Amino acid sequence: MTAPPEARCAGREADEPVFVGAESGVLRAGNFRSRVVNGAIARCIEKDDTFRRLTPHDLRHSAASLAVSAGANVESVQRMLGHA
Fold it and tell me: What is the DSSP secondary structure assignment for residue 34, as one 8-state letter?
């Protein structure tokens, strides 16, 4: 089971990554997708064959939509996503 967000963020600097690779190294997108995301999606599909295959980019869009619908400032969301 993974740690709750509060536990993952505790004691970290604001610019410090929350998700890190082996030995606290930089988490590479390709590694994360093959080691974590693909397996999680496969388990969801096993339990519900109507579950659609997602990509990390799909999750990025969902995060942006949820932030805006929760009242986040659109400019803040753009910055969160790395847009000018």
Answer: I
What pLDDT does 76 receive? 92
What is the pTM (predicted TM-score) of this model? 0.57
Question: Is the Cβ–Cβ distance between 25 and 48 less than 8 Å?
Answer: no
Write out the DSSP string of 31-73: HHIIIIIHHHHHHHHHH-TTPPP--HHHHHHHHHHHHHHTT--
Where the chain has pLDDT below 50, the residues are none
CA–centroid distance for 81 within its chain: 12
Give the residue from 45, 18, 46, 44 showing the smallest Cα distance to 32.
18
Closest C-alpha to 33, from 12, 54, 64: 54
The 8-class DSSP code of residue 19 comes to S
